[in-house]
Amino acid sequence: MASHHLTAGHPGSISAVERYLTELAAQLLPGPRAARTRVLTEIRDGLTDTIDAHLAGGMPPRTAATTAIHEFGDPATVAGSFAEELATASARRTIAAFILTGPLVGIWWLLLLHPAPWRGGVLAALIAIPAIPLIPMAIATAAGTFATTGRLMRWLPETSATRALTAATAIAAICVAADLTVLGLLSTHLATGRQYPAPLIAVAATASFVRIAAAITAIRSTRARRAQLPST
Amino acid sequence: MLPMRPELLKGHLDALLLAVLEDRPRHGYAVIEAVRHGSQGALDLPTGTVYPALHRLERAGLIRSNWEIVSGRRRRAYQLTSSGRQALSDQRAVWHQFSTAVTALLTRQPWPATT
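^ inputs. structure came back:
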């Protein structure tokens, strides 16, 4: 098969494939880099194999390339067919990012606002940190979306990319709500003269401001992605 | 052979892909060839669109993929998982039931040809 190796030199077919891939890359939805790279690599491999099969069947190189490209479908069609997958991948990544970094923000607020040790119980914790109920809300939304865009798709109704993106937006919004709640609470406490260790305040507030900025960026980009999805 | 509309195929693509992976793992191009060959050319769809269908099946845990060296080249090869095998046998049963019903109806009352 070495004589049919594209890399062994069929400049015409190589450049046709490269042009196709460039156009496909331009039309693919933005998504996680790994997911996009995988798409482009697989399409390149598939085209190469198809061209090889045509060459082995005796087609001239240039015709082999154009025939293979024609069989694959025009870049817009192929890019469109990947839209749901890429959007779902980006929704899942956004959700995972907020859930996994949640404890990194929450821990500082827990240290800062936790109720006095002699006041145990759920109610005391809720009064001290009213953002706590938002945590199970975010986790439940994340778990539901992960399950219905993943392994549990066989048994549960599949979540569309649009809905997965909506869930990602909701989780980012919950994070903003939680951050604003604790920041507001802290400023009220500080205004009433309560004392807190300054480094802890600095770390907790920074973590929340960073997360608010990240959440706003995520909300904007998921909204843009949702608008780019073909309406089905 | 009459051409088949891609919409007709869409709902069954999952089952077809699982079926061609039943006997052994295949890489993308081999999957496409197996579908085309197995259907004697009746199933004609833009082959580029088979890949997202494979990715979705992988996300659902019905197939898994890994890089393999095929005749000196690195290719992503897909194989059925045990849930994939189960899903395939479920879909076979559903298809059998469906096709029996449709065949029965269509052969008893042939529709007049439309223009």
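Chain B touches chain A at residues 27-29, 32-33, 46-49, 51-52, 55-56, 59-62, 71-76, 83, 87 (CB under 8 Å). The radius of gyration of chain B is 16 Å.
thumbs up if we can close this ticket
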